[in-house]
Structures are given as structure tokens and as C-alpha cells.
């Protein structure tokens, strides 16, 4: 889902429109996989009886609860935007309560990114934007291709100066 155009200012154009990297889901999906494997082991290797039945129900409950965690994480992913426009950098997130950050490109002093070796392999990383505003620094995590986003922000800033 793209960032809603109705939230842009007149004449403002979108340059980069991202949701968090798929790595954002990794912990929740891994948890479901572990609990699902546990449920299979419990189903295959427990006999009859009240303790075995309780173990089965507990393992099923763990799979369902972790599945709900994945669904909530997906909802959070769908409602999280990192957008670079011709005028500003926009970050919005939240399902019920919302939070957002807007940094005018004219106030951006520096854009830094960080990627571990693993993050380089999967194409994810963190982006730090230093601005002349009150907040000073803003870190954005799980950004897809942060080096390309950094370049896009610098190009947009150069476009303002022209």
C-alpha cells in the first residue's frame, strides 16, 4: 500500500515510499515456526491421557497466540511508512494510536546509515537523519536498502538547491 497522496502538500511528489524491510517479521515468524514444530512433536510423540491432552492444547494455544502476533506485526507493517518527497522526509506508524515524524529537507544536515554484515546480505539497515530541528537526530530502523535511501535524500536536497 502506497503512502496516501491526499497527505502530501500541493506540488509535492513522492521519491521513495517504503514499508519496513521483511526482516521486521523475522522474530514473529520464527516464533510461529518453533511453536508449530513443537505442536507436531507433541502430537506425534505423546500418548493418551490427561497430561498428553493438556500438552496438545498448550502447544496449539502457543501456535495460535504466536499467529496472532504475526498478524499484529503485519498490521503494524502495513501502517508504517517511510517516505521521501520533494519537500520532506515522512515517517508514520501505528494501528490505533499513530505517531509521525516529518523532517523538512531544508533542515536535514546529515544522513547516515548502518548495516551489519547480515543486514547487508538481506538489504536492510538503519538510517540516522540529523536535522536542525528540535529533535536533532532521528533513527529509522529496518529500512530497505538504506544506502539507496540515503542517496535519494541527498538527491532530493540537491533538487531543492537547484
Helical residues, percent: 40-55%
* Strand line-up across the major sheet: 1-2-3-4
The arrangement of helices and strands along the chain is EHHEEEEHEEH
Share of β-strand residues: 25-35%
What is the CA-based Rg, rounded?
21 Å
The number of strands is: 7
Low-confidence stretches: none
Keywords:
162 residues, 7 strands, single chain, 4 helices, alpha+beta, four-stranded antiparallel beta sheet, three-stranded antiparallel beta sheet
Question: What can you see in these coordinates?
Answer:
There is one protein chain. The chain has helices spanning 26-45, 50-78, 117-122, 146-161, and strands spanning 14-18, 81-85, 88-93, 99-104, 108-114, 124-131, 137-144. The protein is of the alpha+beta class.
In terms of topology, how is this protein built?
Blueprint (H helix, E strand, L loop, with lengths): L13 E5 L7 H20 L4 H29 L2 E5 L2 E6 L5 E6 L3 E7 L2 H6 L1 E8 L5 E8 L1 H16 L1
Antiparallel strand pairs: 1-2, 2-3, 3-4, 5-6, 6-7
Helix pairs in contact: 1-2
